[in-house]
Amino acid sequence: MTAACDALVIGGGPAGATTALLLAQAGWSVIVLERKRFPRRKVCGEYLSGTSLPLLDRLGVGDAFRERAGPDVTHVGLFTGDATLRAPLPRPHVGGGRPAWGRALSRDRLDTLLLERVVAAGADVRQPCAASSFEEGDDGFVVRVEDGAHGKVAEFRARVVVAAHGSWEPGTLPTQPPRRVPRASDLFGFKAHFRATRLAEGLMPLLAFEGGYGGLVHVDDGLVSLSCCIRRDKLDEVRAGGTAEAGEAVLAHIESSCRGVREALAGATRDGAWLAAGPIRPGVRPTPTRGAFPVGNAAGEAHPVVAEGISMAIQGAGLLASRLDAWRAAGGSRSALAAVGTGYARDWRRAFAPRIAASAAVARWAMHAGVTAATLPILRVVPGLLTWGARLAGKATRVS
Fold first, then answer.
1. Per-residue pLDDT, 180
2. Considering the domain 3-43+107-178+285-365 in this protein, what is its CATH number?
3. Distance CA 8, CA 134 (A)
4. Residue 193 contacts residue 40 (beta carbons within 8 Å)
5. Does this model's pTM top 0.85?
6. pLDDT for 363-387, tens place per residue?
7. What one-character-per-residue DSSP string does 26-59 give?
């Protein structure tokens, strides 16, 4: 179990895999620790904006993604109350002459595709393995690692640590969030796949209902993914006195609130179990410490209402990898790592802070049925406001 590397990446999801792959392609020795064995399902909206396709091509998985993902998503919609609105999505300008519409791929397939590419690039991927602590030494970090397959514990050494462990679960690492007191406003995420739906191809509607929000999108294998977030107090309310599992209780609440969902899922069958996770933690995280760099949700996350989570994860990983590779080319002194963190944090905030702010505003609007209903007359007359909102959320903004 003892090993040393240039970069140790904690987490093998899109952010961790992208960072590991870009660094491995640049000649770094990389170890990736993933606490679950892939493939594994995960709560996620599963949509990837067209702005990320050039980066997928650079990673060497673009063609495979296009072959396996669901159909092009060309329209955004709104299902709330009796309203079913739709408007064109802004098309990203990414160059190269290739189609750039966003598409959706099941997270178990996307994550496996990326991690397999990481292995092919020469990185050492270990799963199930988890980091329980890391401390900075004179020439890097000492990382304590627990091997979930064999019950062994060892210490790894790495020049830099990339924290790609997400933000939803508290833990013992300095980059993980502390456990906090439960609040009525806490948001929990749910996801399920459905087969034989009536959702129009190419449409990704926002679902706005009292106490939460969600979305529908076509994914691979003819399935439609329904993902949503719901407040803790509303979740308790919809489950009160019932015997249905939490996911089914949430779905019943959504269907009673959104005619568009009832119609889209009429006659459909659920494919697999409901998944649940949370509470989610939207917002921007603290600036990285010297040599330890958060990516993905560990760096910050938008409310899932804008469906930018995966795009932000891999594009943010690209920003970090670029900074790290420039640091290494300049000599890789530890004294310069603080400047790397400062520059990366500045890049990240410039690219994603506007999306996070926009997502918070949209989430507040979507979760209050009275506010949503009050704006419907305007949206019916000017559905292009949905297009404008999608642009504000980053659907046409490419991050270099």
1. 82
2. 3.50.50.60
3. 10
4. no
5. yes
6. 999 999 999 999 999 999 999 999 9
7. TT--EEEE-SSPSS-------EE-GGGHHHHHHH
